[in-house]
Amino acid sequence: MKAKTLKAGDRIGPRQQHNWDWRAASNFIAGGAGGGLLFFAALASLAGTDVRALLLVGMALIGAGLTCVWFEIGKPWRALNVYRHLATSWMTREAAVAPLVFVCGALALLTGHSLFVLLTGMFGAAFVYAQARILSADKGIPAWRHPRCRPMLVATGFAEGAALVAVAAPFVMTSAAGQIGVAAVTLGLLLIRVLLWRSYLAGLRADGAPEGSLRALAAVDGPFLKFGNLLPAALLLVAALGAPLAGLALIPAGLIAVGGGWLVKYTLVRRAAFTQGFALPHLPVRGRGPAGAAVKPGWGGAS
Amino acid sequence: MTRYVMAIDLRRCVGCQTCTAACKNANATPPGVQWRRVLDLETGEFPDVRRSFVPVACMHCDEPPCEEVCPTTATKKRADGLVTIDYDTCIGCANCVMACPYEARSIVHEAKFAYGDTPIASEAVRFDPARIGVSMKCTFCVDRIDEAARTGQVPGRDPEVTPACVNSCISGAMSFGDIDDPNSNVSRLLAETQSFRMHEELGTGPGVYYIWDKG
Q1: A62-78: pLDDT as tens digits
Q2: What CATH number belongs to A18-137?
Q3: Which CATH number fits domain B4-214: 3.30.70.20, 3.40.190.10, 3.50.50.60, 1.20.120.350?
């Protein structure tokens, strides 16, 4: 018997989640970029760059993302309860890292001590990682729990951070060598991001995922590759080769690369976030007929 | 040990939604929120078409992903297998909603009533403001289970301490009881039949068994 679904009735197949809207997406968009920025600002400080403005922007991005989330939760005045489950919840861990970022960042700004700058960068990286773990722990959204989603999210967070350093490089780095270095690092991170993105998409298709997720992600694949990565990569290459005034190419390159990452994260958290849906490995035996074949409505790819 | 589970015989379910109505009545859930509902699935191609009904709700998992991700510890798993939510601790972040592969959880951000902004008499009596802005889901009628501990009655056998949906089922498709007790009705039923659990491959260990054929 063919097990083709004729009618997917009341909420059987996967459906787009509506509990996390743009405010939740903003936390991943701004927080990831901010954490990545703090990490690469700390690295840039090792080369003697004045990174105070970068630290300020990184903390502002993280703070903006958390503020958006605060406006989304149902009981904002109980928000401190978020700290009660450090043992297993990555949301608690993300929230625990945030004050460390702000305290170390503030001390770094006030004292200029390199130790605090480095600690801020380290906690920024931890914030990016915690955000990726939040999504991968959510088993109800197949596009998030896929094992290749987490590295892709971390990669785009770091790529965005490096890209923001690239945007600032013409203003905070006086040496051409420093700007070339930033361009080269950002270029490398964009390459890693693209490889992990394509690997993620291929993994989703191979392992099976809700059709809505596959459609939403496929819709941004082309623009993300061309405009989010190839275009800034070309501009970064110009900068990395050290052409005259090429440092100025870092600004659009960085902004476009950041925009590409934000597009992917918004798509992932909102448009591609389809639920698991329901599936029956066996249809029940009724009367004298045999059991029906397995059904899994609304899924595409291999499954 | 005690591990309360539910067994649902898909061969018997006729999709009447009486369990859905009984749940709404017992738990006073707001419009648009169904802690229990019955999926209606049509499959096949004419003339070989079949229709299946699948009651779904919180699966009260062995390894509840909602509990793991909950940042507040509002969601807890009890020793008897029931997964509970402390409405006074939950912040309504919806992380548990995303973690649940069974779409069992809901968050309602403002009071809703059947006929507009003003509750009808029964709604006014039973309206619980603690449930606004927090996560909520099927409790397996936890108050009744706790009552059993006080009275000595047996959940799944005595209707007073059995979930409302199970009591209401017109076809006897739903059973409830302690799977660790080999003499409980669910243990005997599951031993005599073939069953599966929803999305077992995800490793959540759901506490709801779907019977699809005889043993």
Answers
A1: 999 999 999 999 999 99
A2: 1.20.1630.10
A3: 3.30.70.20
For residue B106, the chain A residue with the least C-alpha distance is: A19
- Cα four-point dihedral sign A125, A129, A134, A140: positive
User: 3-state DSSP call for residue B214?
Assistant: strand
For the record, the structure tokens of B132 come out as 């606004």
Assign A135 to helix, strand or coil: helix
Q: Do B42 and A141 touch (CB under 8 A)?
A: no
Using the beta-carbon criterion (under 8 Å), do A12 and B39 form an inter-chain contact? Answer: yes
- The predicted complex's ipTM stands at 0.95
C-beta atoms of B44 and A278 within 8 A: no
**Alpha carbon of A205: minimum distance to chain B alpha carbons (Å):** 18
CA–CA separation, B22 and A269 (whole Å): 35
> What per-residue confidence (pLDDT) applies to B46?
85
Tell me the per-residue pLDDT of B76-113, one tens digit each, with 9 for 90 and over. 999 999 999 999 999 999 999 999 999 999 999 999 99
Give the contacts of A248 (CB within 8 A, at least 6 positions apart). Answer: A170
pLDDT digit string (tens) for A193-245? 999 999 999 999 999 999 999 999 999 999 999 999 999 999 999 888 877 67
Euclidean distance between CA atoms B77 and B97, whole angstroms:
16
Report yes or no: A295 at the B interface, CB cutoff 8 Å.
yes
